[in-house]
Amino acid sequence: MIEMIEATKSYKQTKAVKGLNFHIEKGEAVGLLGPNGAGKTTAISMLASLIQTTTGQVCINGVDVRKNLKKYRARIGVVPQDIALFPELTAEENLNFFAKIHKVSKQESKQTIARLIQDVGLEEKKKEKVETFSGGMKRRLNLACALVHRPEYVFLDEPTVGVDPQSRRHLLDLMKTLQQEQGMAILYTSHYMEEVEFICDRLYVMDRGEVIASGNKEEIKQILGSGSTYEVHVQEGKEKLYELLQQEKQIKNLVKTDDGIIVTSNRNPLFQDLMHVITENHIRVNGVLAKESTLEDVFLHLTGRKLRD
Amino acid sequence: MWALVQKEFLSFKATRSIWLLLLLVPLIVITVIHMIGGNEDGWQLQSMNVAVVDERQLDDALESFAARHPEVDRAILTSANSLSLPDSLVDGFFHTDELADMIHVQTYTRLNEVDVSDYALIISFPQDYREMVWERVFFDETTDARQPEIRVNVEVNEGATEVAEWVEQFIFYYQFHVAIGEDGAVEDYMPAGETAEVEYESISMFEYSVVSFTVFFSLYVASTMANFAIRDKQNLTLDRMVVSNVTLGSFIGSRVWTGTMLTLGQLTVIFTIAGLFFGFKVASLPVFILALSVFSLAIGGLSALIVALSLAYGTEQSISVISSFIFVAMGLLGGNFFDTAMIAPIFAQIGQFMPNGSGLTVLLQAKQGFAIQTMASSFVYLLLFGIVCTLIASALMRRKEQRR
């Protein structure tokens, strides 16, 4: 198990991460959610031993990783947010290089590289220079390079940014397979809720350098409870309703759709208040549907910001 | 570490612009110099009068020198005769088969005795010139003596400029031999108290240019490697290497070896091509290879230092400044473009502290067949230079690692 205990990271006057506590068990997939500037990348960099914690520590099986950094690094794989590849080398040469510096035996690296190239769908491109690759192909290779030494824990920092839907699906399936079939533990950060929901068993929600919620998907969604989000299909008076709801203090968020408004509240139950506004103001509606809470809703509820803000 | 070296070579192999800078440009420069040298064959020398003004004749100079240095054996002073540039010029250079029939030399002791309208070329040596050279050869002392002057009168003979250039080259080689041969000469002459000949092959302007330009362009191995390191930092592959258990120490070590091997490869290719196509020869191949290896190690150390500085403080712009200004300044002081001693001896002395200056001297000596003992101090200096650069680079990297 890898743990982060009361970890903080300060840059001069700014605290990028404040007293972070979280853990990743062997073989589990954990999501780290947060908008830009939440401190996710700093947290991953500390976990990856790229930067040191200002206070607090990162431990593996209860031992501070700094005590045997070499051993720790051999057990982790890091997929950085940016493409960290040698553009002038071919896909195969990149993989070979990372296998060599991890001291993977020739025989093993040959097999692993062949399998990884197949897994990320780059068989036809393996002899081509990375600089000729599309963004999606580079992302896939970026992931493969982190797996070449078969790490026990993989930290993925928004690995699907700028990836086409096909490559994205490919990457997600691969990560799911690695976690489920090979028992690789995954720490996954993303802006995309559906990715996190697909891959992760457990989540940490971060904002402004702190963990503000944690638990499994259902536990997180329960934070909002039921009946807090409604979809109102308006026949007449959509703009008027929108304006009226904007004045209601308990309404947390309003999103206009083609034929109505999605209303999210931080007070339960919302339904009665909503119906009161509609009937009092003679708004003609086709229907009011209770909407199941999503992680996005939870995030909005907790931070007042959208994930992709 | 060898994985890093191997990767660097793959990166170099895949980047064509590097080959252009490290191999093609010096080869083009050498080819152009060779062609310019070859064009001289097309010029026809016509009969020409040359005046050589030697303000103090050999006998006077010998007397004066003996009076000031009574400890110097007469036999050694006799040998000084062969080290006199005015006499070598008159009795040697202008007496060669190619020039003797065409050039008529008249010697004078006073410049005002010369009727300038009669001579296409007037070469005048200052009064203390001989003694300055002997002081340098026998006692390793540098004085601020004036340099010989060459006056050209093209109205008398249109070939005057051409011959003036030959004379300049002759003076240049003469002074160069005196400068780089001084250690050997002093060691051989002084303890025995009798004459001894130090023999080494002469060196042409073209050969000097081959060595000096090749040495100069090898500096660009260091800047190219620094550019690669900056790119590794910018595209986060350096971070990825660190997470993959590459210590910054082994990163620097790999840069030393890459720089060394790349420089050795570059020098070997250029000298081999110069040998095959332009007749560039070395007196002793093993000694020359040893000199190449030692110089390459110094450049390997320099490469590691520039890489470390770039990673600690640098950007691509700072590398451009190093390549554009600092290396050119080093090239000037190190004598890679011309013999800076001709401008001021202090420049040449400073240049010898630079790897390119020291490397140039050692490669020219090796090319001419100097004994290894004569070159030992330069070898040691170059090795120390490489080691000190590597140590500073390692310290910088350690500091960077601690800051993380």
Report on this structure.
The complex is a heterodimer of chains A (309) and B (404). By secondary structure, chain A is of the alpha/beta class. Chain A has 11 helices and 14 strands. Chain A folds into 2 domains: 2-221, Rossmann fold (3-Layer(aba) Sandwich); 229-292, Alpha-Beta Plaits. Helices cover 36% and strands 29% of the residues of chain A. In chain A, the strands form 3 sheets. A 6-stranded mixed sheet of chain A has the order 6-7-8-3-9-10, with helices on both faces. A 4-stranded antiparallel sheet of chain A has the order 2-1-4-5, with helices on one face. Chain A has a 4-stranded antiparallel sheet with strand order 12-13-11-14. The two termini of chain A are 32 Å apart. Chain B is 68% helix and 5% strand. Chain B has helices spanning 2-14, 16-39, 58-68, 74-80, 85-92, 97-100, 129-139, 160-189, 205-234, 237-243, 248-278, 285-313, 316-333, 345-351, 355-368, 372-403; strands at 48-54, 103-108, 121-125, 149-152. A 4-stranded mixed sheet of chain B has the order 2-1-3-4, with helices on one face. At the A-B interface, helix 2 and helix 3 of A face helix 1 and helix 10 of B.
